[in-house]
Amino acid sequence: QQQVKQSPQSLIVQKGGIPIINCAYENTAFDYFPWYQQFPGKGPALLIAIRPDVSEKKEGRFTISFNKSAKQFSLHIMDSQPGDSATYFCAASSSSTDDKIIFGKGTRLHILP
Amino acid sequence: NAGVMQNPRHLVRRRGQEARLRCSPMKGHSHVYWYRQLPEEGLKFMVYLQKENIIDESGMPKERFSAEFPKEGPSILRIQQVVRGDSAAYFCASSPPSRFGQYFGPGTRLTVT
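ok -> structure tokens follow
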């Protein structure tokens, strides 16, 4: 059973556009929702994270929108740049399960110059 | 402040040999998690350790895999009698006792020939 579902699998956007990546979860015990960015051959890097008592969080050009009732959250990248081309993973964790992270399957994002 | 360190970065083993992967957490971090990433897949939780204790090993295969985090030195993920299906990228992440935020190392890419 996939606990965190992520879509789309891949996404191509023109430079300056706003790619949106969506995730849905099932376990209401999740209390922490991070997004990770991964470049080829590198480890995932923590990009931004949100807790369920907040509906939106912005850090620079990255925004998470969180809908607790729908059990969905999404990542928006404003003014996207070719350097943002990477694989993005949404994830969730719960203090009741020792904070082990459950990852979505990833979205491969390509920003066209 | 050095990040999470993993070595070796690349490891080639023949079927039946042993693989030892090492992880040094960030300074001040006492929690270590190991994850496995298969090609084109998200990361899958394997084990969560604190110093001298295995807290959660629910993601570890029942045989051939073991992990430790001794009082002194790095955390070790050990795979005995490797098989081709063990070929993957293995990442460790560390977090501080205050929870929230796991920081990943660059990974060890294991190839079994």
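Chain A has no helices and eleven strands.
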